[in-house]
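User: Structure please.
Assistant: Input sequence and predicted structure:
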Amino acid sequence: MLGDSITQLSFSSPLGFGAYLADVYQRRADVLNRGFSGYNTNWILEHLRSDEGLLDVFGALPISEGEDNPAHNKNDDCASKSEDQVLLVTVFFGANDASCALLNERQHVPVEQYKSNLKEIASIIKKTCPHAKIIFIAPPPIHHDARLKYQIDRYGKDNATGKLERTMEMSGKYATAACEVSRELSVPCLNLWSDMQASAPGEKWHDFLSDGLHLSPSGNKFVAQGIEKLILENFPDLAVSPCAITGFFGNSGSSCTGIKQAGPWHDEITDSKNFIHSFKKRKVCLKSGESD
C-alpha cells in the first residue's frame, strides 16, 4: 500500500483499512504499509528513483534484460524473488498534491504534473514488480467546516488562518485526474471523491472523515471494502472469499484461487501420528498462485 498519511494511518487502529485488508489476507499475503505522511507525488517519485527507495517499498530493483536482480538469492526458487512476491500495489496520492498553490506551495503539485507522476509511478511498479497488479485510489472529498475546526483545534483560535488549504473543488480535480490516468493505463481506480458522496448523499458523507480530510472508522471501512470490490471485479484470483459458516478469512472454509495459504489448515492435519505427510514441502510460485 503506497500512499501518503491516509495510507500511513491505515494501521493505526483495528478499524484502519490496512488492518482490515491484513485480516482478509491473513496467512495468504502480508499487507505492507508504505504510507509516507505529508508526501506528494513529486516526493514519493524522488524516493522511488533511488535504489534505497525501491528496496524500501518493493524489496526489489528493476531488472534489465539478461541481468539478475541484486535482491535475489540465486539459490532460492521463484517464490523467493522479491519482484514476484509483490502481487498488488495500491497507489493512493493526491490529497497533498491538491493543496492550494498560494496557501501551501510546499506540498502543491500542478494537476498535469500530478498526472505525469502517477504514470511514472505505475511505470516504476511494472518495471520493478512485473507481475504485480495496480489499483489507483483517488483522493477523498474535503469537508470544509471540519478542516477549519481542525485549524483551531491544532493551532488555537488566534493562530488559525481561517483559510482553506484544501477544498472540495481542488480535490475533485485531482480525483478526476487520477481516474483519467487510470483509464489511460487500464488500471482500476477507486474514486473516493465521487463514491463517498454518492453512497452517503447530503452531509452524511462527512462521517467518512475524521478531520475533514483523513478517514474515520466508517471511512476506513468504506475504503477497504472498495478495494475488496475492485480486486474481485478486476483480479478475481487474488480475491479472498470468507468461510460461509464463520465469516472468517483464515480457515479451511475460506478460499482464494490465486494465493496459497501458509501451512495446511489445522483441520487438514487429520492424522495426529503421521502429521508429517500434511507438511510435505511444496514449491510455490506466488506470481501465478500455483503450487506443486
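Residues 2-238 form a domain with the Rossmann fold fold (CATH 3.40.50.1110).
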